[in-house]
Amino acid sequence: MLRARRAQFDVLVQWAPVIAGALTDPGSAERQQLLERWDARLAAFAADTGLSTADRLDALATRAELQKLGDPNAPVSPALAEAIRTQRRRPTGTRTIASSARR
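Given the sequence above, the corresponding C-alpha cells read:
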C-alpha cells in the first residue's frame, strides 16, 4: 500500500487543493471529511524519512493549502507552521538517522 501511495505522490501532493476543491462544496461536511483524510495522508508523507526533504516539505506546504481551502480566513495552525519551519532548516537531500539505518 505504501508503494502505491508513493507512486501517486505527485498527484496526492501537487493536485490535492485542486482535486478537493473540485470534488466538494465549500463549507460542506464532505469537504471537511475529505480534507481530514487527505491531511492525514500528507502528514504521513511529511513524516516519511524515506522521502527527500524537498518531498516532505511539499507535503507540509500542501497541508497548509488544504487548511486554507477548509477555511480561507484562518491562519495556518501553529504546529504546522513550526513543522514547515523545521523542515525548511534541514538541507535538501538530508536523510534522518532512521532512514539511513534502513539502507
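Residues 2-101 form one domain. Try to locate this feature in the C-alpha cell string yourself.
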